[in-house]
Amino acid sequence: MIVAMALTALNGGRLNADVRPHALFCDHMVLQQGLHAPVWGTAAPGEEVSVTIAGRTARGTADETGRWMVRLAPMQPGGPHEMTVAGTNSITITDVMVGEVWLCSGQSNMNMSLSLAMDAEAETAAADHPSIRLFTVPARILEEPVRDVQSRWQVCSPESAARFSAAGYFFGRHLQGELDVPIGLICGACGSSAAEAWVEMGALTEVIPDAMERWQAEVDYEQGFRDKYEAEMAVWEPAAEKARAAGQEPPPKPVLAYFVGRSRVHQPATLWNGTIAPLVPYGIRGALWYQGETNEPRGHEYAMLLRALIASWRREWGQGDFAFLIVALAPFRPIYDHPTDSGWAEVIEGQWQVARDDPLSGLAVTTDIGDAQDAHPKNKQEVGRRLALIALARVYGRDLVYSGPVYSTMEVEGNRVRLHFDHVHGGLTTMPGGPLTGFAIAGAERKFVWAEARIDGDTVVVWSDEVPEPAAVRYAWAKHPICNLANENGLPAVPFRTDDWAKTTGP
Fold this sequence. Notes:
Strand content: 25-35%
CATH architecture of the largest domain: 3-Layer(aba) Sandwich
Oligomer: single chain
Number of domains: 3
Low-confidence stretches: 1-15
CATH class of the largest domain: Alpha Beta
Number of strands: 24
Structural class: alpha+beta
Largest sheet: 11 strands, mixed
CATH topology of the largest domain: Rossmann fold
Mean pLDDT: 95
CATH superfamily of the largest domain: SGNH hydrolase
Radius of gyration: 26 Å
């Protein structure tokens, strides 16, 4: 729990008698509208602290460790305001906006900056949005949770946006254009990170009791490759020196396995400790989550992990069930010429199960905007737009289409299967056109083959001459599916399977 966090003082490891707000409370910040927004920091133990903004004041007293917190009365969107934090000294924070605040987290696809996105030069030049504010949290891997963070809010400009999360920026830009209120975006993400690293330790061990043992086994596995590399280098270095002395080409230099060191960002709870915990309990509307690639080898447990992560974040924040919007994994190599089992698809299934069961969640499907040759597809514009559609519909109550077709039920009709869908919204279609693809079918023997498929009204009929008695259908069930089912609003169908057969990554 947050109350049990290790205290890291904001001034070089010792408490300063001067009142000092947490780093989140600085010039250009955005406060979440409509809730009792917490403001906190440090001061001398027992010191009385007041926070004043827009004609309202909240007062508190620093506890015996020098920590204080007050909660502001709910505010309407707008600004700029000045905030004064006063104790024995006084600090004035300028250009404070009130609006909607979202946390952006995950691994490298969330971390990917605007400067690397599609049409980066034009998009960066146009990123002049004074009502959008950006706060980047340095990714820190720590054994214990801390309270401090070293960063500052920045006004969204071509310079600041270029370094910020592209997916987060495009989400915020779309949301700001629709809501016409200030938007605050906080990004704390880390490339190659596992979901386990982002879950508070107590919550993680409730669902995966051997999480630390698993991680230690990964560390030991990596150490074996490191030991092998060091032994090879011990042989290579004198051989290379001898060759150079004789005017000959040295032998090829040993190469350390590319994955060695990645266990560091897989260590349970460490990114929660160092990157997310320092933000708690800053007022937010919700979180965006773009992660799962690293968890492909254990896709069968992803839904359980993600539920634990969401529940632990909401519990630690203590502001109720804030929204949690998820980006589905994008297609990535290889492309198979036959149906296969897929840990990648199992992760997406887990993402969808979580989004389906949570009224404040949703899944942005990306089957149409992946890149077989790049795990970091550049079209983050559409990722951000689809996340914003979900937010507008499920969080802000807008009446709009935010999802592609979602499988609901099936009927066996002789040697064919008829599939029914929700979120048809004007009709089923293929995007960008052409014959319907992406379906596989199997009989009771559980051997899948590619299927023929056609749209029939609001249903899809699937069949194969190789399967006279069908039992199950799968759609987009691959690491890089070739699929094109969508609704007339241009949103792709959620990948699915009609069976509940054992998963390929399961025990």
